[in-house]
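On to my pick:
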Amino acid sequence: EERTALIYSRLMEFGGRRCTLSVLQDTTEQVRAEEALRESEARLGFLSGATEDGVLMNEGGILTDGNEVLGKLLGQSTRSLIGRPVLELVVEEDRAKMIEMVRSGTEQPYEVRALSPDGSSFPVEIRGKTLELKGKTARVATIRDLRRQRSQEQALRESEERYALASQGANEGIWDFDFGTGEAYFSERLKALLGLGPAEPPPPPASWLSWLPPAD
């Protein structure tokens, strides 16, 4: 088996003769561990660069590493963020929450508001994992920008509200049926048209044909 070693040598006089004293140190396992660490760091770098989420490493409350997306998400260079307390990345009101989530070691996602350089804030989702790295405890976390999701949710709510107002103004009844769950929804106007009370649940679909003339 091929192994790796370090040799330390020094020249000396022994018995009137000039000789070399050498010490051989087997470093095979150390070299293998270093190679494995480099490969792991390379994989982490590739994965963090391929994601749309910000990725950061926190050691003792200090940000020690991060991908380029992290800097773009927070509106500044990642290099400028290295060495700063991670608590400075979120609004003051959410810092106690972040401390509690880190201390608990949870891997469940949680939401806080991140800070932009101009002092404004925006919602983000953080998902972290505690691990041992080179004998130290570190916390690796991803940060996902929720602004697009919140905007889409708001647009959907506004669209639903506009549709509800339009249907009320047109005196229309609305219903839908989920074939997967068997659940039905009847709008209040539809219940009124069918002679049902506002709090009365939709009857089973098998009975719906009773509202129609046989020819239909």
